[in-house]
Amino acid sequence: MKVMSVFGTRPEAIKMCPLVKVLESLPQIESVVCLTGQHREMLQQVINIFGIKVTHNLNIMRSEQTLYTITIDVLLKMESILKQERPDIVLVHGDTTTSFITALAAFYQKIPVGHVEAGLRTYDKYSPFPEEMNRCLTSEIAELHFAPTENNKNNLQKEGKRKNVFVTGNTVIDAFSTTVHSDYRFKNAEIQKVLKRANKIILVTAHRRENLGKPLVQICDALLSLHQSFPDLEFVYPVHLNPKVRKIVFSKLSNVEKVHLIDPIDVEDMHNLMSRSYLVMTDSGGLQEEAPAFGIPVLVLRTETERPEAVKAGTVRVVGIKTEDIVEQTTKLLQDSKEYQTMAHAANPYGDGHASERIVKYLLHWYENLKSK
C-alpha cells in the first residue's frame, strides 16, 4: 500500500511525524512524504528531530506569502507529484491551507484522501480564519476521517459522514515519547536560566491572525498587569516571527523583568518547557491538546475553541481577549489552589499516545477491503 503524507507547517509536522514513523516501520506500506514548505525553518526542525525521510519538498514559502499564493502554489505543484507517485491514499492533517488544497489536488486525480484530526468545528466559518473552512472543506473531500475524540466523530456524523469515521485519539500525544525527557537540557539558554530560579513559569503563545491588532495589545496589557500583581512569576513568550506580531509584543513587553520574549523554539524545547510550566496561556489549538497531557491548565486567549471536549473535561478554559477577563481568570487560578488542582487533574480527552497505530490499523483494513472488491 502506497501512502503519501503531505504537510507543510510546523504544527502539522509535530502531529504527522509520529504517524509517518509508524508507516515507515511496516514492510507492507510504502511511505512517501511530501512537504509543501508553507513553513520552512520551523518545519525542518521537526523533521530533523523525528528523523523523517522526505521524498518531495515543494518549497513554496516566499516573502510576504498570502493565502492566495499558498493556494496557487500548492495546487499547481501537487499536480505533478501526484501524477508521478500515484499513491493509494493521500493523508493530510487538520485545518491548514496545505491540507485543504492538497485534498483538492488529490480529488482532481480521483485519489482517496485520509483526513487526520478530522471533525473539529466552531461552526463559525470566519473563526478561526481560514482554518475552520479549510477543515470543513477537507472533510467534504476525504474518504477516511480520523477523529481524535467522540465529539469530533459526532460532528462529522451530524454532517452526514457516517462511513469510515474512526476515533483514534490525537497523534500529538504520540509525539511526547520522542520529544520529552526528564533529564532534558534546553537548547535555548534563556529557558535554562529561568528554570534554575525555580519560580512558577507561565508559558505564553499568541499570534493568530484574528488576534492581530487590538486583541494582541489587550493580551499584552493583561500580561503586564499580572506581572505587576505577581512579581515572582516568570513569563516565557516565544514570539512568532510574523512582523505584525513582533511589533506589538516587543513594543509592549520588551525590557520587562521576568517577561522573557524569545524567538520561536523547536518542538523539543517547547514540549519540555510546557511540561515544566505552571500554566499555559495561548491562542494556539495544539497547545490546548498538548498541555493537559502533563496536567498543566490551559487558558485560551480566544473567544471560542474548536476543542470543546477539553473545556468539558475541565483541562481548558476559554478566557477571551479582553484584558480584564484574562487577568481575572488567571488570578483565580494563581490564588485558588483548589481551582488550579481541579484543572490540573482533569482527565486528558486526547488519548493514550497510540493514535498513530490505530490510524495505520484502520488504513490497512480499508485497503484490504478495497482490494477484495
UniProtKB/TrEMBL annotation:
GO terms for molecular function: UDP-N-acetylglucosamine 2-epimerase activity. It is an enzyme of class 5 (isomerase). The keyword Iron-sulfur does not apply. Keywords: Isomerase. Its EC number is 5.1.3.14. The keyword Isomerase applies. Belongs to the UDP-N-acetylglucosamine 2-epimerase family. This is UDP-N-acetylglucosamine 2-epimerase (non-hydrolyzing). The lineage of its organism: Bacteria, Bacillati, Bacillota, Clostridia, Eubacteriales.
